[in-house]
Amino acid sequence: MRATVFHPRLAALFREHLGQDVFRLEPDTVGVAGHDVADRILAARRATETERPTFKPLHGRSISRSEASSVMRTIGGDVREALKRTRPRPEDVDLSGSWPLRGHLFLRDLILGRDPYRLRILMSRNLELTPKLTWTVIAAGAALPGRVGRRNAPLTAIAGLTADATGYQERRYAMGMYRRAAAPVCFTVSTLVTNALWLGSPFAPETPNRHVLYEAMRLLPPSWNILRNASPEFAAIDGRIEAGDDVLLLPLLAHRDPKLWKEPDEFRPERWENLDPDTAPGYLPFGHASERCWGRHMVMPLAELLLDLIRGSGLEVAPGQSSAKVPLVGLLGVEDVRLTKVRRAAA
Ligand code: HEM
Question: pTM, whole model, 2 decimals?
């Protein structure tokens, strides 16, 4: 039995609010985990530009929807190209080691491996430590003379956007956009797969990767909270929300609500045989039906690729590892899960 050790603030959320629908978290913040209220709040209006996780303003410049969708198409094309290179599945990949770092580096090299160092360094996990550090590295890279990447050198299309930028300000903006669009692919997918491994590895051979992933996102949703700043519509939806209250929607709690799920704390991928992840009440790993995550069509095949490679090469969570921590960060995930090859005696 593996122990998942949640940060004390997360553990307190479970302890104090599991099964509640609307509750006060702070003098100016209300938590929402009830699926009906959550549904109405998310349907009430679109996320504003500062609430959007990926395309919030960059260096004070708003990112239009058309620019955002063009950047998403570009990184989507790079991911498709990378996926093509993994068919048939490579057999010589060693994904043992500490996750999510191992998965992050594999994805960075697979998708962005042809890009110059000054762009690839933007994918460093250490940069998450402080946003300031990220911007310092971007500013330093943008200040280097010359284009980003050699002319005619094979870059990813997302790096091509930075290569075409001229002047320090434009280059800095383009590099910020590279980080915004490319980093989540490596960060979120490696986190999601780590969570799945921790919860269920080794998986039964007949269990489809999709079910493993849906169930992992139920118990450990990488996007564990969704913020909506105070809005007049919200007080009309539920009297416990006051006009000035921000609302923190908590898939982390909704996904374990005993009113919605049988054996809510158990990892049961087979429950997805009869459930539709797009319509299961209270299941919001990719946000609300009114505007679901734009990256999910990249996330799922990449996560399935990683699981295929891991399952195909006989890697499992090290049998001696019995506990792992979940820190309090924006992207909810288990830290330092050690994957090793386990030899099993023939049955
Ligand atoms: C495990 C992986 C991921 C999860 C669980 C996830 C989850 C979410 C959620 C919950 C939302 C809705 C946010 C809201 O309504 O406020 C969202 C929106 C969005 N996601 Fe994802 N996401 C993932 C990966 C990605 C990746 C890799 C990208 C881009 C490359 C991406 C791009 C977006 C965009 C563009 C939006 C729309 C709002 C915005 O502009 O930021 N996501 N995602």
Answer: 0.94
